[in-house]
Amino acid sequence: MRFRVLDLETTGFEPPAEVIELGIADLLGDERGMAIGPPRSWLYRPQHGIPPETKAVHHLTESDFGLLTFPCSPGQLRGSLIEPGVDMLVAHNRYGCY
């Protein structure tokens, strides 16, 4: 079984909040146990800036995004998360814990 664990960093909770980082790692399990696949992450350039209160949570600033990063789209997220062989998505949520 292959679980895809994901974590998103955003510019906030309310529109026009944007996804600015996606991190994933796969957990691979069989009758012998579980193994963790290599972690991967992508940065997406925010179109509306990053509010100070969210910078304080994830410590990402506008200077962390190179000239070649692009805004995140639903298609990019879907393509990164849903691949053949992924049996289940597992999300991390820290809402309200800071």
From TrEMBL:
Pfam family, one: RNase_T
A Gene Ontology molecular function term of the record: nucleic acid binding
Occurrences of domain Exonuclease (ranges): 5-64
Biological processes annotated in GO: DNA metabolic process
InterPro entries: Ribonucl_H, RNaseH-like_sf, RNaseH_sf
Name under which the protein is recorded: Exonuclease domain-containing protein
Organism in which the protein naturally occurs: Sphingomonas glacialis
